[in-house]
Amino acid sequence: MINLTVNGEAHRWDGDPSLPLLWYLRDESGLTGTKYGCGQALCGACTVHVGGQAVRACITAMQDVADQNVVTIEGLHPTGDHPVQKAWRELQVPQCGFCQTGQIMQAAMLLQDNPKPTDEQIREQMAGNICRCGCYTRIEAAIRLAATGV
Amino acid sequence: MTYMFSKRSVAHGIQNVSRRHVLKGAVATGSLVLAAPLARGAHAAAAPTYATGAGDMPHGVVVDPRVFVSIAPDGTVSIVAHRAEMGTGVRTSLPMIVADELEADWARVHVAQAEGNEAKYGNQDTDGSRSTRHYLVPMRQIGAAARTMLEEAAAQKWNVKIEEVKAANHEVVHGASGRRLGYGDLAADAAKLPVPQIKTLRLKDESEFRYIGKGVPFVDLRDITTGRAIYGADVRLPLMKYAVLVRPPVVGGKLVSFDAKDALAVPGVEQVIEAQGWPWPSKFQPLGGVAVIARNTGAAIKGRDALKVVWDDGPNAKYDSDAYRAELEASVRKPGLAVRNEGDVDAALKSADKVVVGEYYIPHLAHVSMEPPAAVADVTDSKAEIWAPLQSPGGTQEDIAKTLGLPLDAVTVHMTLLGGGFGRKSKCDYAIEAALLSRKLKAPVRVQWTREDNIRHDFYHTVSTERIEAGVDKSGKVIAWRHRSAAPSFMSSFQPNVKNESAIELGMGFVDLPFAIPNIRCENPEAAAHTRIGWFRAVSNVPHAFAVQTMVAEIAHALNRDPKDMLLELIGPDRIVDVGKSTKDWWNYGEPFESYPVDAGRLRRVTELAAEKGEWGRKLPAGHGLGIAAHRSFVSYIATVVEVAVDDKGNIAIPRVDTAVDCGTYVNPERIRSQMEGAAIMGISLAKHGEITFKNGRAQQSNFDDFPVARIDEAPAVINVHIAPGQNRPPGGIGEPGVPPFAPAFCNAIFAATGKRIRRLPIGSQLA
Ligand code: FES
Ligand code: FES
Asked: Is the ipTM beyond the 0.85 threshold?
């Protein structure tokens, strides 16, 4: 039996302890804001926060999040108005939107660790998150905007 | 020969002239706009009077406010979006057009997503960059008709003439008395009125537009940024089962046997069953294989990894992309089927002072939208319900009905958002897979394609070799142009033994070359397909524009000319290029030539705009270079100037991109910008990285490690998009035409920076 907290709520899992957290969130818990893009930690679509770090849920086993605090896009901000989310809307960053919850979770953690990142640091920290639609210049601008206040 | 209007009408074999004419007569009024609107006082406006190919698409256009608009008593206006949202903003832009003519306040508009149902909504194929082009006028007419009905209802209520009242900002006002009624108060009465004749409608004057040409924030923005937006795999039904399939690794192969013992031992796996497949080619029918059914997707994937399967690889077992490349090269060095012929190319090449020759190779590509295909189906003996990200929801309804043997109206296709499409999701094999499994299991099923499935079993972008020979006379004028293009056609996914490119593919930047050269010949040597070919964003424009626009720079270099000046000289004097006179069965993106001619003047102006805004010719630091390319596709004109900086290890940075767009009338400029930004990134991906190779019939790549796409650290520092004024012209496409000019402009810039000419994509390690 694995106990964990997701977005402030107690969860328990008594299935396969090696199940990737991604599928627990999406299929077992209905938290579908976290996306599947590659399953191999190559694209960042599944990015969530675990214990104050951005992690790829697709390669994180349930047994590794026992007793941990998991935050998904649904729990990032109670009304969806985290500065990163607001900046994303201000600049109309998304196209299809599929990668964007992962991008936002990655960007939120980046700013938590480094509230005034340089452009170089933004590119470095966001390089694990693919956007096939190609919203990169706006992602960069939105992170700068979030850092300076929306 | 009658020929193809839409990619799907090809699929459906709709090549029947009488059927076209029936369609045209019955429902195409939306596209055949009427030149004589009823003049009504000072507000009479000339309706746009251009024809489009919308009526020739399967099921044509439906112009009916009762289908698209409803108004609640509280005044909320619901407008139906009947096309697929995959990131272009169409789900916002089309309803916004209706709202504008309706004089609705956007803050009180709700967008309702249509299901797949073309009998009701008209054509829904969201590809070919057609949505705004085909629906600007019909959506305006729908809004104007609804507005007129509201005005009529108010006039009757007040017992005044309709000319005395005017709808504005969600209410109807009687000017003389100052009386006013909100749309919510009028809706019930308006709904009882007959829909006015299209030809009597007063369309707004451009100066009255509230939203058209200006734009509004797109409707899904909040849901996307909060994780509430629903894509195909986000649909959950009670008692739903989760399925992952293993499919034949070679197209045309089939299942021999499988051993499910280890798979069934995986915790959470419930069943392992054979999945029905069709022989190749079979349009969009599934490949078949084995399905692992589990309590969640993770368990299904793990179960699949444990499966042991034996395949018969079939006729494509030897497909090898290196060997095939050699075949294509040999083909373009020999004459092929002449598909455009002007003057005498052979004689002109013989007489030329100099012949510049370029051979270009553009490999297979996979679409890799961030959302891999996924679909949910709930099928019983008498009906089917599907939820999926689909570019062709109407076609999917038809294909599922046919596959299951159900009447069309027993199949409901719900359209989720698409996490990217790029042409892959025009093919509904994944939805058919889900439907078949649901029927077999008598339970709702979600089929999830893994990224590996997505890359190994795509309908790939074609692979092509392009050879151009350009003859130059003593005075430095280009007098001859022979272009040979050899590439397997996407028609090979619909029928066997296809050897030549279809009219659609030939029409994409090949036979429609807009250059002022007296002797032109385009030839298409044969090329047979050995895998599933489909259409990929911008389709054959990608290889054709790469070859043509690289060749222009090669000629410039050979003649010691500026590449931009060379390009402008080849585009030549402002004129309409009559491609049809030297090309049999020329396909003009399905559009009538009169509305959408090949206009050399527009291509010139957009080239000049990109050059001016991109400060062509400016002084650059060492290691930097500028490249330019211009291309007409999807009846829009795009030119791009790219600046690169290449270091001594061959790393490429992109300080700046300037893209100029002439798409005629534009509706939502902010989403045009985002499409052009995205096109640049997709251009970077395919120029630097994109390549699917085959060995023993199998695609060699499987995920983003071996099929990389551009990441943020490769993105341009700045992408400037310059939209040319064009509100007096018919609208052109936007989703695709930004892609073709990018790769050649980028590679021309690399040449300017390094002297290294890229003739084979991807660049990969060619600069290292
Ligand atoms: S799905 Fe986890 S990184 Fe791609
Ligand atoms: S917005 Fe479509 S993948 Fe990023």
From this structure: yes
